[in-house]
Amino acid sequence: MAEREMKALKCPQISRVSAFYDKELAVGPQVDMQAHIAGCEVCRAELESLRGLSGRLPSLPAHRLTRS
């Protein structure tokens, strides 16, 4: 089983971490998720993983799209 699937089995809130990070949740759920992440190692690790990935994106080479 993939690591991400194992994490999902450990916390039912893991699927909301991405929406939390992207600030896609309404104010109430955003606050609730922030409190949840503060106490959940699994979700906190997922959030840190997203932050790390986002931090590396600017260093990727840009590719130009061409017309076919």
Would you mind describing this structure in some detail?
Helices cover 62% and strands 0% of the residues. The protein has 68 residues and is an all-alpha fold. α3 (27-39) crosses α4. The radius of gyration is 15 Å and the shape is elongated. The N and C termini lie far apart (40 Å). The model has no long low-confidence stretch (mean pLDDT 86).
Give the overall shape.
Answer: elongated
Biggest beta-sheet profile: none
Question: Beta-strand percentage?
Answer: under 5%
Low-confidence stretches: none
Radius of gyration, CA atoms, in whole angstroms? 15 Å
Number of helices: 4
Average pLDDT metric: 86
Protein structure class: mainly alpha
Helical coverage, percent range: 55-70%
Q: Count the beta strands.
A: 0
Alpha-carbon distance between the two ends: 40 Å
Topology as H/E string? HHHH
